[in-house]
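Record type: monomer structure entry
Structure origin: computed from sequence
Chain ID: A
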Amino acid sequence: MRRIIAGLGGLGLAVTLSQFPEYAQQYTQRLGGAVDELRVIVEDFDRAAVEGGLDRAAALTRYEGANDDFLAGRGTAMTATFERYEALHATLRRIEGASAVERFQSLPAYLDSEIGQRTLENYRPAVPVTMEGILYAGGGFILGYLVLSGLLRLVMLPFRRRRYAAHP
């Protein structure tokens, strides 16, 4: 009975962990899309600044120094856009260059971001047919089996029959 329950636990963790590569791939696609869209905004702003004889910093300074609250607010918003673009772009580069283990170690950071939450909300499970997915499934099965087997053994310890040595 213990082996069956441990096997089911192993199977459950195998299925769960096998989904991580697909989640990471969907997250990377969303992140890449966000970076691409922000790049369009950044390049458009920089191009308009150059056409006006300014660089980015000078254009932002002009916005922020305006006596108009709307223009000053737009300058603040553009500064935030540039910062978000740089942060997301750096994250994308880090993920694209990461190994399978490094991506898994970054899971809390994925889930903690706005893009990670939206990815999770819209996540669609997939059958793991990549080597990475199969390795995660295998690791999940072994880990789940061992953990549940150990827990069951520990819980059943007080109910174990004791064998007494036969006295001659």
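Annotation 1: The longest helix spans residues 20-51.
Annotation 2: The mean pLDDT is 85.
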